[in-house]
Amino acid sequence: MAVVFPPSHLNESTMRELDAGYSSEVDAVDEKEWCRLLHQFNDANIYQTWAYGLVRSGRQNISHLLVKEQGRVVAIAQSRIAKAPLIGAGIAYVMWGPLWRPQEARVDAEVFRQAIRALRNEYVCRRGLLLRIYPILFDDDSPCFISILAEEGFTRARNEKGSRTIIMDLSRPLDELRLELRPHWQRELKVAEKQKLEIAEGSEDELFEMFIEMYREMVVRKKFREPNDIDEFRTIQRLLPAESKMKIMLCRSSEGVCAGLICSAVGGTAIYLFGATSTAGMKSRGSYLLQWKLIEWLKRRHVPRYDLNGINPETNPGTYKFKSDLGGDKGRDVRFLGRFESCKSMVSLACVGVGERLKSIAGSMMRK
Questions:
Q1: SS3 79
Q2: Which one, of 228, 323, 218, 206, lies nearest residue 281 by Cα?
Q3: Cβ atoms of residues 340 and 155 within 8 Å
Q4: Contacts of 201 (CB under 8 A, 6+ apart)
Q5: What is the pTM of this model?
Q6: CA-to-CA separations, 339 to 111, 202, 203, 215, in angstroms, rounded
Q7: Tens digits of per-residue pLDDT, 25-39?
Q8: Does residue 27 contact residue 78 with C-beta atoms inside 8 Å?
Q9: Strand-pair category, 305-307 with 332-335
Q10: Which candidate among 39, 52, 177, 300 keeps its CA 20 to 30 Å from the CA of 357?
Q11: 284-310: pLDDT as tens digits
Q12: In sequence order, what are the beta bridge partners of 99?
């Protein structure tokens, strides 16, 4: 049954009332309605899709919150919940949320305030969980967001530094975007365009399977640890509705599939999720051709921004140069504000701390 919390029903001793005209609802929508609402927000992303939460956490461990102003939905957030057996303590995690930037409407930071207040009321005050949010906010955004987070009872998560990424503005004409590529990137793209390369693209599972085969070979060749479970994303792809499915692009040379990428374009910012290149692909520069073909596709879909999804010049200088040269001088090199959390329960705080330490130990043992 849907749980509705209009401001007048909040307990002031443990919760903060939403401002006049605002109300919140928890678990009041089904998957179809959530998908419809998701596409109303410019900051929508794959991490807030029902399918992502379902695969990562299971149906019983995801929760959906709506914030309304005068009855109109102005913010939404999907939380993934993990609780210790019996005692009920644990964490609610909102990845790349809440969503509060509507399509073609005025962006109001106060809506963000109401959204995180509603989240805290539900998961910290009512359920006694540690609430951790990873909002889509960058260090060059308005400083008001740091103040809002602090005023609403959130502190920066421990050992949180905030990751970096490059965001490309795709609103300009395609020929301008090409001229803005750094000279090295332009040269490599020209080399790729002269090769006899074929592009296969779509969202079918067959393409995902072909990509994974090459991706696994690359992981072994480069001896690096996968940052994300690609098999989970394959399952997510099967569950996503057609309009939200990831874009898969493969490049074939005379030696077979030599390069590939996977991208999500749910909201106003496309996200580069996975890339893979075979030895043959490195010779043919297939990855350069695929990125450019993807940008052409995003332009046709009128997607205004492209997030190259993570850079680290120190630990991965080669990938950093590839993405930096693609972004060019007008690529926006930004750092996320990072994760913020709020908690009133010492039991939940302790449970999450122990769980994260055990996870860290297990991870270090696997790397040995």
A1: strand
A2: 218
A3: yes
A4: 207, 247, 248, 249, 250, 293, 297
A5: 0.91
A6: 19, 34, 31, 29
A7: 999 999 999 999 999
A8: no
A9: unpaired
A10: 52
A11: 889 999 999 999 999 999 999 999 998
A12: 76
Q: Is residue 368 pLDDT above 50, yes or no?
A: no
31-38 and 50-57 helices, crossing angle to 10°: 130
Spatial CA neighbour of 267 closest among 83, 54, 100, 103: 103
For residues 236 and 230, give the distance between their C-alpha atoms in angstroms, rounded to a whole number: 10
Tally of residues, the chain: 368
Measured CA to CA, the distance from residue 111 to residue 34 in angstroms comes to 19
Cα(54)–Cα(237) distance, rounded to whole angstroms?
A: 12
Which residue is listed with tokens 């006049």?
Answer: 20
The pair of structure tokens assigned to 130 is: 């540690």
Distance of CA 261 to the CA centre of its chain: 16
Find how far residue 18's CA is from the centre of its chain: 27
> Which amino acid would we find at residue 218?
M
d(CA 245, CA 39): 13
Number of other residues whose CB lies within 10 A of the CB of residue 148: 18
The edge-to-edge listing of strands for the beta sheet with 198-202 is 198-202, 247-253, 256-264, 269-277, 305-307, 164-169, 332-335
Question: What confidence score (pLDDT) does residue 355 get?
Answer: 67
Question: Of the candidates 227, 23, 205, which has an alpha carbon nearest to the alpha carbon of residue 114?
Answer: 23
Cα(237)–Cα(206) distance, integer angstroms: 12
* 32's tokens: 């179809």
